[in-house]
Amino acid sequence: MQPSTSPTRFAYLGPEGTFAEAALSSAVDTGGGTRTPRPSVPATLAAVRSGDADAGLVPLENSVEGSVPATMDGLADGDPLIITREVFLPVAFTLAVRPGTTLDAVRSVASHPHALAQTGRWLETNLPGITPLPASSTAAAAAAVAAGEHDAAVCAAIAAERYGLEALADDIADHAGAVTRFVLVSRPGPLPAPTGNDKTSLVAVVGDRTGALLDLLREFAARGISLTRIESRPTRQRLGVYSFSLDCEGHIADRRVGEALAALHRVCEDVRFLGSYPRADGRQNCPVPAESADDAFAEAGDWLDRVRSGAV
Ligand SMILES: O=C(O)C(=O)Cc1ccccc1
Q: Where is this site: Essential for prephenate dehydratase activity (predicted)?
């Protein structure tokens, strides 16, 4: 990936006014580059894959609602893409309507499924019996309300403003303090340099056999690598065959992480590397046990070379 200061064509989950746009602005210096909203997560990833964009910003998971399937599956399948950055954004939801609409006139509410899920209790309490309608993004819902397609949208305050809507209520999330994790993805290329506080993401397909998941986990545990996320996703081949999407601490340039991934390559049916990038959640990686540090691997490698050459 080019450094974020060089002209880069950025794509993001649009239209204008999404949380994805806010995440891009908050964390990436788009410099002299361009930012183009795309209508969906698959369209954002497709723009990067086709070369229409150099990098794409999409939501990956939320602290309340969990992962965003379109992103998880979009990264697991298709031409490889790699994550070069993660961005965390606190999200606050507004109920937005066309000016003059009152709460008792609202019959339909649209938003991204994650936003509807995170405001479900508020909506049930304040708008009993309404129909929540899924949209490709919170801002797409706001635009649809402005166009008269729905009565209200759950969106960012900035989206209400952008589409000429009025906020009927602010901060309507059921759980205060929700945070969404976004990722910036690029076509495979030079990896971000290790910073000493990095994460690595991958998807591994394990065989349908006893202990397959344990074998996968063992490769990390044996090398003193802490996982920060793991979840199973259907492979869509047949019921019962799963892939595991996970993040671990460390950079693939770290010996322990490289060796763990190489071991997974041996024990799993398929492994897709999804990138090594600076950790951005404000937390520090767990201390690396002395026997798992790079110099311990280097020293052990030297010893093996000596033994193999008959020197010891
Ligand atoms: O729809 C958006 O604005 C997004 O960026 C995706 C999203 C949806 C709900 C919570 C956080 C991010």
A: 180
Residues whose CB is less than 8 angstroms from the CB of residue 74 and which lie 6 or more positions away in sequence, other chains included: 41, 42, 45, 58
Tokens of 143: 């635009």
For residue 94, what pLDDT is reported?
A: 97
Give CA–CA dist 64/122, Å, rounded.
Answer: 15
Helical H segments across 82-211, by residue range: 113-118, 120-126, 138-146, 157-162
Residues contacting ligand 1 via CB (< 6 Å): 13, 18-20, 59, 62, 91, 112, 114-115, 137-139, 180
Which pTM was predicted?
0.93
- In angstroms, what is the span from residue 114 Cα to ligand 1's centroid? 7
User: Which of 26, 27, 30, 25 lies closest to 10, judged by CA?
Assistant: 30
ipTM, two decimals, is 0.97
CATH of the domain at 136: 3.40.190.10
Domain coverage including residue 121: 94-170
